[in-house]
Specification:
Radius of gyration: 18 Å
Number of strands: 13
Oligomer: single chain
Strand content: 35-45%
Order of helices and strands: EEEEEEEEEEHEEE
Largest sheet: 8 strands, mixed
Distance between the termini: 42 Å
Number of helices: 1
Length: 181
Amino acid sequence: MSATEFEALYVAWLKSATLSADGTRYDYEAEWVEPAGVGLPRTVFSLRVGTWNTWHKSVVIVPGYPPEGPQELEFLEPPEVVTPANRKVPYPLHDPLAWSPGDPGTVTTCRISRGDQQDNRAQVVWELRGPAGASEVTVPQPPSGVDAAALLGAEPLNAWIANWDGDTRAASSSVFLLAPQ
């Protein structure tokens, strides 16, 4: 299989990162390879605050391989989930969800998945997109021809809110649980 057959091929490894004392920048050292046949490489800068399943994340995507020298990047402010108040207790799927909208002018997405989020085996089963600045959504009932039990399963679902401004910046909330029925 060649590099051109992959949708995403991770070819960089962070060796070290140090956050400045004022928390406004970080210095890092990374190594990467440049495989032959990659036509449109992209570098993804990602900040995560918190630990697994409690973190907020913001990313900036820059065309090309990692550039040399300091980078001036503007990360989006992640949305903060307001409802449900307790992320660890499954919340009714069709009750209203609310969040702080984060950066103005960004498009909001609520993604709902089933399966293990931590080891990347989760399957997105529902995605809701809202207009710029949206701060709430209610997950609708599925269409009458859809077997909701087969689609959603019986286990709690993982959900998160993400804001994005196109193809270059995105930010997401921590994961919260939804009860499928």
